[in-house]
Every structure is written in C-alpha cells, then in structure tokens.
Amino acid sequence: MVLGGAVHVGFSCFSSCISSLSNGGLSRKFSSTKLHKPLAMASMSNDPIREWILSEGKATEISRISPVGGGCINLATRYDTDAGSFFVKTNRNIGPSMFDGEALGLNAMYETRTIRVPKPFKVGSLPTGGSYIIMEFIEFGASRSNQSELGRKLAEMHKAGKSNKGFGFDVDNTIGSTPQINTWTSDWVEFYAEHRLGYQLKLARQQYGDSTIYERGQRLAKNIGSLFEGVVIEPCLLHGDLWSGNITSDRNGEPVILDPACYYGHNEAEFGMSWCAGFGGSFYIAYFEVMPKQPGFEKRRDLYLLYHYLNHYNLFGSSYRSSAMSIIDDCLLMLKA
C-alpha cells in the first residue's frame, strides 16, 4: 500500500487472490503475561497506544498520525515520531487474542534471524473495547521481491525454526477470519487430517449443509498416510498464509513477509497458497538448495492446496467449492480410497 512514496507491511484484508487476503499469527518471548502485564497501567489511559509510544517506545514527540489504507479486517495507522515510525493495527470488535496470535507468529519468525518480518512491540486492549497491536514500520521498496532470495530466505527460516513440542503452536490463531486450531500433536498426518482438513470440512457442513464435500473429504483425510511414506517430516516454523499480498521487499530489496498465520508443520505445507503466490522456477530452485525436495512432493502438493481452497470456500462461498472438490476427487482416485 503506497503511502507518501513508501509502503508498509501489516494491514489485514482477507479475500480472494484478486482482492486481498491475509491475517495472522507470536513466540514464547511474547507470552500473554508479558504482553498484558503493562496493560494494567495503560488501560487507565484514554489512549494506551500513544502512552506506550511516548514511554516504552522511547519517543518524546508524535509528529504525525496517518491512516494506511488497504485493510478490511483491521484499521491500520502509521505513527511518525522522533524515535522512528510505528505501525499500529486496531480492531474495535475483537479482543487481544487475535493480535496475541499475530505477535507470537511475527516474533517467532523474527527470532530466526533469517527473513525480514516486522518486529511486534505491544498488544493490548482499547478502553472503549477492542484491541491493538504496535509493531515496526517497514518502508517497502519498488519491487515485490527477488524470487531466488525469497526462496532461500524462506528455506532458511524453515530450517532454523524448529519445535520440540511437535506440530502446532502455543496458541490458536486465524487464517483470514477463520479460526486455525493449533493443538500440539506428535504426528503430522494426524495434525493435518484433523486440525487442517477436518476442521475446514466441518465448517463447510455447518455453514452450507455440504455433506458431499464433508464425506468425501473425511474419506481422503483418513487415507493420506501413504503420501508420506519414506518422508522425513520435522516441525518447521511456517508463515502459514504465504501469498502475493503477504510478500514484498524493503528498500534494500530484501524480501519481507507479513500478516502470518504461524504454526509448526511440514515445510511443504508452506506452499498451500502457491496458486496465488506467484512462486517461479527460481524460487523453488533456491528453496530446495537449502531444504532438499523429498520424494513424492508433487503428489502432496495438491493436498496442501486443499486446505486453503476449503478455507476460501468457507469464507467466500461456492466459487471455490469446485476447486476443492476436484482436488479431493483426484486425490481419492490416486490413492484408490
């Protein structure tokens, strides 16, 4: 989003690839206790955002407050100060839990010291209801990103960000405005079948009464194990919602990713939004030089697309149903299930 010759990261707008789709997911360092401990004092203020910037943010003056367009879930604002610029998202209807999840994801990615993400600073409640998140403001460069560098940096993040708890995340978060369940699970196939495909299939049945896609999808979910035979699966830190609207570059041309829906999962699941991410050949070549391709990758690719097609179906309606159903039927045929 252009703003005075510059652009910034972090505004939320979940839609189709033609519109804007995003949202996101924080690290241990930003536990709920630490995030909300300063809130007792801040909540006494009519403007906890300004109070934080002028205290813990180390600013003595706010020179300009300007809206950043492009959001359809949250209101985005830029605060220019003598200590630098801050990016703030607010939501008048939702409590801090959504932004807690986003901050945890951003911080987890930030701590890998691999690919650039906006550093989160503070999450809190608004006195009039709702919540906010304050984070680093990043000036965008002219180009979207270097594909080779993006592939290499993303692979480095996957390689560096590991979990000893299994697959999942410390908190549930959102994929767009859909809840994303991140209950820790030791087995990846079980996690993906239940908390990714299974959850979306249940939503489709609840929202649309779609018993056909539910029953066929559940049959697929119960039979995906053979697609992972001989595959080494480690819990890698995933951005979780990597499409073109969440990928850009800074003024030095370094890739930047934003608005995550983080969790620890199979690294190949990161490509589930590739149908509107614009990954080219140079991206995959660079990525697989760091994280080597495993046997059966091409057969699993559609399985990872399916989660996001189902989510689009649940969020935006029937125009995405045929794509989801086609993947389910093709996978069932391939697996002879």
UniProtKB/TrEMBL annotation:
It comes from the Eukaryota. GO terms for molecular function: ATP binding; kinase activity; protein-ribulosamine 3-kinase activity. GO terms for cellular component: chloroplast. It holds the Pfam family Fructosamin_kin. InterPro entries: Fructo-/Ketosamine-3-kinase, Kinase-like_dom_sf. Its EC number is 2.7.1.172. It is found in: Plastid, Chloroplast. It catalyses: N(6)-D-ribulosyl-L-lysyl-[protein] + ATP = N(6)-(3-O-phospho-D-ribulosyl)-L-lysyl-[protein] + ADP + H(+); N(6)-(D-erythrulosyl)-L-lysyl-[protein] + ATP = N(6)-(3-O-phospho-D-erythrulosyl)-L-lysyl-[protein] + ADP + H(+). Keywords: ATP-binding, Chloroplast, Kinase, Nucleotide-binding, Plastid, Transferase. Its main location: plastid. Initiates a process leading to the deglycation of proteins. Phosphorylates low-molecular-mass and protein-bound erythrulosamines and ribulosamines, but not fructosamines or psicosamines, on the third carbon of the sugar moiety. Protein-bound erythrulosamine 3-phosphates and ribulosamine 3-phosphates are unstable and decompose under physiological conditions. This is Protein-ribulosamine 3-kinase, chloroplastic.
